[in-house]
Amino acid sequence: MTVRVLLLAAGQSSRMSGADKLLMDVDGQPCLRTLALRAYAAGLPVTVTVPAPDHPRARVLVDLDVDVLAVPEANLGMGHSIGAGVASLPHGSSAVMVVPADMPELCSEDFTALAEAHERNPMAILRARDANGRHGHPVVFPSDLLGDLQRLSGDRGAAGIVQAHQGRCIFIDLPGQRATTDLDTPSDWADWRKSKKT
């Protein structure tokens, strides 16, 4: 079974005061590139949505063995970006692992843990959870829900699909705050960097 990672990187980074959160440094490389490398290191195929084929985000991926998908209408909301990403997946994908690309604490072993859980539970929705029990990402959707994901639009993302199939959810606990650390503002990034030094 093939679980494909869908890294969502087509958003506007509108809360960063002109900076691009996905190009911020994480382990010596742009955040987006680091996340793509970690997913790929888990042995999983990776698709990355970006705003345009010539966008700086696309350029930091150019030498990686990942599929880059331009979603020029991503400003319509995360749901639209997810829908376009899922529609682009190769035939035969058994599941999609949806991951916002602004989550710098996710590690290769986290991607592996979700993929292995899918092998054990191929019809479940798998939701990562942090050490405090808060729901986060990645989220794995099985093959029979890919059509629903393709039809998404707007800003709600896939929350409605998860809610409609709550009985199929299995939670996968990840260490620390990996599943819930997403950085949207300059202060988020500054606080996170400070926490890494302590």
Order of helices and strands: EEEHEHEHEHEEHHEH
- How are the strands of the largest sheet arranged? 5-4-1-6-8-7-9
Please give the domain count: 1
Mean pLDDT rating: 91
Unreliable residue runs = none
| CATH superfamily placement | Spore Coat Polysaccharide Biosynthesis Protein SpsA, Chain A
Summarize the topology.
Elements: E1 2-8, E2 25-26, E3 29-30, H1 31-41, E4 46-50, H2 56-59, E5 67-70, H3 78-87, E6 93-100, H4 108-120, E7 125-129, E8 135-142, H5 146-150, H6 159-164, E9 169-173, H7 186-197
Parallel strand pairs: 1-4, 1-6, 4-5, 7-9
Antiparallel strand pairs: 2-3, 6-8, 7-8
Helix pairs in contact: 1-4
Describe this structure in words.
- This protein is α/β, with parallel strands linked by helices.
- It has a single domain, classed as Alpha-Beta Complex (Spore Coat Polysaccharide Biosynthesis Protein SpsA, Chain A).
- Helix 1 crosses helix 4.
- The N and C termini lie far apart (41 Å).
List key phrases describing it.
single chain, 198 residues, alpha/beta, Spore Coat Polysaccharide Biosynthesis Protein SpsA, Chain A, 7-stranded mixed beta sheet, 7 helices, 9 strands, 23% strand
Briefly summarize what is shown.
With 198 residues, the chain is an alpha/beta fold. It has helices at 31-41, 56-59, 78-87, 108-120, 146-150, 159-164, 186-197, and strands at 2-8, 25-26, 29-30, 46-50, 67-70, 93-100, 125-129, 135-142, 169-173.
